[in-house]
Amino acid sequence: MSNIPELAWKKYLTREYSFLYISYAVDCYKIMMQKVGATIKFDLAHGEDDLVSLYGINEEFENCYEQINQLLSTDLKKGLQMMDEFEELMKRYYSLVEKIDDCENKSDLKELLIELDGTFLNLLCYYLFFVYLGYGGDKPAIAKFLEENKERFEKLRNCGVDSHMDKEFPHLFGKFNNKFESLISYMSRKDLLNLLEDKELNLEKINQRKKEYLLVTKDGITKEYESPEIRKTLLQEVSELKHLDEINELKGRTACQGVVRGKVTIIHTMKDYPKIKEGDIIVTPMTKPSITTLLSKVKGIITNDGGALCHASIISREMNIPCVVGTIHATEVLKDGDEVLLDANSGIVKKLN
Q: I want to staple 67 with a disulfide (CB 3.0 to 4.6 A). Which of 23, 38, 185, 297 is the partner?
């Protein structure tokens, strides 16, 4: 991969992940091969406000899936062993969270937080391993493993340690120094460890990440770009971004059939829920259960992410709302007020104005 002359970055996910979580994931990729026998070495994360868009290299994902397939081809029991190790790490992680919640002594608190940092980093290695295992389900050994352990795998894959960490770490590390609690979500893992050592923090850089950030990892080496460089670097790295203004048609996967025409309302996060009006076609990175009660107003759903079993797919079928998922760039191509034709029979979204 390091010899590829031009990296063909493709967006694969848009999520409400904090900068801190992304920083842990970047550090995690650097030790995953040693810990679980598979990893990725190329990753690009672009964050704006509360959302992050993640880009990767298709060939490298395929390589990661093949690494996991080879691991299970040698010994299917290795997968079970890793499930056991993952569950033990989860128990240790949640136990530490409880201890930190109850701890009032600053010296003890520091030790517990350092242990929490290492435990979560190792836990994330296993979590991401199982994420990629699921994505590589068409590989023969992976398919066999999933067939034999489907229920247990689904439970582990959907354990929510990523969202739990995002929610709890500001509070947990804020107990050590509540002066910085509101900034912890925008710190890197290195910043967090420096906080525990009472080292000086670059508050200007941390605050800048609230607005926008860009992390690019190439062959395992990560660079964070400063604000003036971000837009230029993004356009240089991700060729598909140069042509988004020219796109008038998006292709995705049909979740619930139907054909509707209407105006778009972009929903990035829960903060945008009040924008939803009767008859809107909502366009969002992904839907969450919290939006369900508002969906009775809408006549169509378009998402960047998702597949046959994502929340948008399931809830749209339950409520009989035409829905297309997995368009990748819908929230970037479409704007509030755009009129679109949502042809969920064929999985196509056409911009009309």
A: 38
126, 128, 182, 279 from 169: Cα distances, Å? 19, 19, 11, 39
**Burial tier of 58 (Cβ tally within 10 Å: 0-12, 13-18, 19+):** exposed
For the stretch 138-158, pLDDT in tens is 999 999 999 999 899 989 988
CA distance 213 to 146: 37
The rounded distance, in Å, linking the Cα atoms of 56 and 217 is 10
- Count Cβ atoms within 10 A of the Cβ of residue 273 and give its class: 0-12 exposed, 13-18 middle, 19 or more buried: middle
DSSP state of 40: -
Start-end ranges of CATH 3.50.30.10 in the chain?
Answer: 247-351
- Beta strand pairing call for 212-218 and 43-48: antiparallel
0.85 exceeded by the pTM? yes
What whole-number distance in Å separates Cα of residue 193 and Cα of residue 204? 18
Q: What is the CATH number assigned to the segment(s) 247-351?
A: 3.50.30.10
More confident residue, 240 or 127: 127
Give the C-alpha separation, 51 to 123, whole Å: 23
d(CA 333, CA 251): 12
CA R_g for the chain: 21
Q: For 214-255, where are the alpha helices, taking DSSP H only?
A: 227-237
